[in-house]
Design brief:
Length: 690
Amino acid sequence: MKQEISRFVRGDMLLIFEKDEKGMVGFTLIPKETEGMLKEKDCGAAPLVELYVRGDVLPADYAAGNTMCGSASTFSLVFERQYTDGDSIVTCFRDSTGSREVTHTLVFSEELRAVECYSEIKNAGDRGFTLEMISSGNIGGLTPYDAGEAPDTMEITTATSNWSAEGAMVTETVEQLSLETSWAIQGYRVMKIGQRGSLPIRNHFPFMAVHDKVRNVTWAVQLEAPASWQIEARRKDYGLAMTGGIADFDFGHWAKDLEPGESFRTHSMYITAVTGDAEKASQRLLDIHERNRPKHLTLPPVMFNEYCTTWGEPSYGNLSGIVSALKGKGMEYLVIDAGWYKDDENPWHMTGGDWVPSKTLFPDGIKAAADMIREAGMVPGIWFESETCGSRSLMHDREDMLLTRNGYVIDTGSRRFLDMRKKEVQAYLDKKVIGQLNDYGFGYIKNDYNESIGTGVDGAESLGEGLRQSVECSRDFFRRIRKEVPGIVMENCASGGHRLEPSLMSLFDMASFSDAHECVTIPVIAANLHRLILPMQSQIWAVIRKDDSLRRINYSLVSTFLGAMCLSGDVTDLSAEQWGVIDRDVEFYRNVRHIIAHGDSKVVQNGVTSYSDLRGWQTVVRDSGTEQLVTVHTFGGDVPSAIEIATGEGEVLDSVMCEDTGWTFEGGVLKVSPGAEFDAAAFHIRKSGV
């Protein structure tokens, strides 16, 4: 039996804090409307804070090596009190010796359809100890609508990610994941996702959802995770738990020394509960990004990036042609991408780090190019990979400025990494990055990052803590760019989409959605990301080639309606007919981008199973409350005679498509008849009765 400590209504959710027979305190979070369905769950409370201090007894029940949860460090915590402080619910613990003070803080904001959790531990004793694991958040007792195990009831959804293949949702049942309770109610079952290194969106996004498919209720979590992280779905008794935080010592080689009086606070984990599926829960978690994002931009822009035009060799000469082709075309930003600093012998990816503009490419200086762009009515932007240096740069040999592991400079292919913790590194970047942004009049920075540091670095009590410190100093540098360059627009890029997590997204106006620059999979990846980042912040590429058909151009441009439009490609060699399609689609985009900026999305993908052999079709409905933006894409294989999208009653204000694409709109159903494979259409709808 569990004893209720407190309950709170926050928005449309009910929070209930409980204490079990072993003294552990946990909480239940449910949609308020399902309160009458609650059962007394036959399980222990999932502790609000899971932690492990070096030297304490490790977890039993075959857990060691799979999870550090359930240790003596956790079970030694004694509940002291709980109080409210404004929008925060603070729960305080002290260990049985009195040497560790632990607090769990749950924050509710009117701007979120979720709650925010974080943990803090303080050394209140007279000697130091080493922390090897601490959770940001932990929700257990799932599903609380069954007293027992609830077989064939729950499924778990995660979001996978690889280079140029970001954000695919994968759903598996608890039974498929072998998370069923054992016959003897012992033995931890653990399913862990996470990553080690400085590219946080590798393998998975820091997102997990549990869906009770019988009651149609979903619990979902998302972590702030700028470096190594982990989320576990874990079970020992009849209650399933989700726990997340910094990657622990077992998984990420992280340990933190705390001397008397010192404290450590985790990043936040966000939790929501909703009547609906994982798709609906994901839309609620996007409130985090909306609340935290910079408000410099009110609408997603129309941009041009020259990378897929010059392929790493921008010059004043080729930029002059690009500017001439784009003048008067509605482009708001023109970004000079990688290679502006390269020498005459080596490629762009081997020469970054010194950040000296090439005199060969820019004989009159790069400021002349920035001035030319601005005179044509566009804001000039420039690419940096601030935290790394290439193998042919002078900085490559400044080993005193670089990160090491086990005494050796970290080499990954052609890149090394600056030690962002060092004052001399920060001073160097202040001059080379911030100084040049200001000196040359750039109003936009694309901050790229094309490798991972790996498990960790020297210079702290553990490799993982060294990595954490280094990445936190990178975040401090990004904050300083915004402070020191008034009005700067900042793009978060990491080989495309490898840094699309909440704490980094909160520092940037936009992010590169992927490196799938010319792939037919662009609309699929872009739609997947509607569940994980704001479309407002998702910069999507449309690379236009001189031999592209009009259908292909429209396909590429409609893909950008799923986020912020970024063009590239052969703009100096396009025909008037090709420009006609571009001009039409850009005008449509400008008329609907307020819907992209604010709303919820519903993604439907039919027959889409492979990125390498893309087949089937996709629809995305972006709903702002009063208007809708509907996009339709077909892929390879049989073309459906009609695709039906239920939008509700309304009026189609405008549309873009190829001439052989047909459509009707009756009874709140939009029916689209595609003209061919790899076709696209978009519709602007004004809803009725709202």
